[in-house]
Specification:
alpha/beta, five-stranded mixed sheet, globular
């Protein structure tokens, strides 16, 4: 099914999405994208449905074609301080602030959002698989975060962040068990499995 080009005809809309909410390490990253009227791309979809290669091909195309785009990053320390839900909203706000022009409406992926001052918003569940602008934001957020995690992998190669990107895979949790948490791990998250925690007792 083709993704929709707009939520409300005639309005300047920015799609917003984030990446990295469920990770054990690193930041949460959001993007906001305003696409030109009539923008079409048969490949663009929810970033989770695309291969890494395809996302890497799409990201520069989106940045080139977009009327405006912004990236917002909230690091692991701030996540621990304000919790991951608020950190996700804050990352989106930073992405919106980074836009080169102001939209009239925000299309937010998900069912909750902290209102952005003076701009209306619409929460859309699974919006990244329904609207082109949200799908574009999901690709930019994901690729930006993946590049950050690849850089962090160079500093902490034992955790496999070049592959798992900080998500709680079995290998990632085993590395935390074997080597301990890094300064980039989210201390407010459950870093070990129940079985591993039992072994510590």
């Amino acid at each position: 099914m083709a993704l929709k080009t707009y939520f409300e005809k005639g309005k300047i809309e920015a799609g917003c999405d984030e990446a990295g909410r469920g990770c054990l390490a690193g930041p949460v990253v959001a993007a906001a994208v305003i696409l030109p009227k009539g923008f079409r791309n048969k490949v663009l979809n929810d970033s989770k449905q695309l291969s890494e290669k395809r996302r890497e091909e799409l990201a520069p195309l989106i940045m080139e074609k977009a009327l405006a785009y912004g990236i917002g990053v909230v690091d692991h320390l701030e996540i621990d301080k304000i919790n991951i839900l608020n950190a996700s909203f804050e990352a989106m706000h930073r992405a919106i602030r980074a836009l080169q022009s102001t939209p009239e409406s925000l299309l937010i992926d998900g069912n909750r959002f902290n209102p952005y001052p003076e701009i209306e918003h619409h929460c859309i569940i699974k919006g990244d698989a329904k609207y082109l602008s949200i799908a574009a934001a999901s690709v930019l957020a994901k690729t930006h975060r993946d590049h950050l995690m690849a850089d962090y992998h160079e500093r902490y190669p034992d955790y496999g962040w070049n592959q798992n990107k900080g998500y709680p895979t079995k290998k990632h949790r085993q590395a935390i068990f074997d080597f301990g948490a890094t300064p980039l791990h989210r201390k407010s998250f459950k870093l070990l499995s129940d079985e591993q925690l039992r072994l510590f007792k």
